[in-house]
Amino acid sequence: MTTTKIAVLGAGSWGSILASILVQNGGQVQLWTRRPEQAAEINEQHTNQRYVQNYHYPEELTATSDLSQALAGAQVVLFTVPTPVVRSVAQQVSPLLGTGEAAPIIVHASKGLEQETHCRISEILAAMIAPEKRQGIVVLSGPSHAEEVARQDLTLITAASADLACARQVQKLFMNDYFRVYTNTDVIGVELGAAFKNVIALGAGALAGLGYGDNAKAALMTRGLAEISRLGMALGAKPETFIGLSGVGDLIVTCTSVHSRNWRAGQQLGQGQSLEAVVQNMGMVIEGVKTCQSAYELAQQEKIEMPITAAIYHVLYEQAEIKSEIAALMRREGKAELSWD
Description:
CATH topology of the largest domain: Rossmann fold
Oligomer: single chain
Strand content: 5-15%
Number of domains: 2
Helix content: 40-55%
Strand order of the largest sheet: 3-2-1-4-5-6-7-8
Shape: globular
CATH architecture of the largest domain: 3-Layer(aba) Sandwich
CATH class of the largest domain: Alpha Beta
Order of helices and strands: EHEHEHEHEHEHEHEHHHHHHHH
Distance between the termini: 53 Å
Radius of gyration: 20 Å
Number of helices: 15
Number of strands: 8
């Protein structure tokens, strides 16, 4: 059986744990990081303490800060870098890839939209990596905290691609006794569900920070899913995707767990901290903050009503008071639930 050569770009918590899974499953993995000292820690100590504490990586996993070394001979290239740098990293990657039969499958496991263009990540990758330098683009997404995957908790996610054969190849690379992957062809829905749920998670955290309980959380998640679905369908997604792993599944895990950076950020906002202080405290990218602006602008563009998203936008970008926004939401005109308005 031929060993698959895989380049994982981005050595944060999610990228490094996905790299670990691939090694455990028999893949030959090169993990790329911009920081030589991080590569040295992974290679010499088999740890990545800044991102995943008290976890020992397989000794077969090698890391490098040399992008060309990471990509040499790669049959699969997995992007796990933050959304704002996907375009610049893809631009660097493209000249280093083979063509024809040597072209790799391109996979990404990042969640968000590019703020300036509102592009989904697969759209950015398609624009920056020429067709002859890729076999297909696959989106890997679903309810999955890196900390729990590291403990080998049972995890189910989705591999979505317009090229089902590529999705199935990625599915085989990741599947094992604790990590299960389903395939899907609705790339738009999977990416939008993954991006927009971070906005709702900010709201869920804010409710917790204000002291609200399970009733409020359930209401926010349910009506938040209605908003995500409404805008997603307007942008070309299939409605059934939003009741799947990358829709309601990802929404549940992100809105209910202290592992979620977006939930923790929202909680701090609810406790009265400023957005600037929250961003500084987190020390890592809070995808939902920028995604909220994109979602708000897309809703305006498509003339889609998204009152929860608008309320979170007002708090983040217009310094609105959270309790006032909640009161305005509760006092909206009565509507029929199944109208999804």
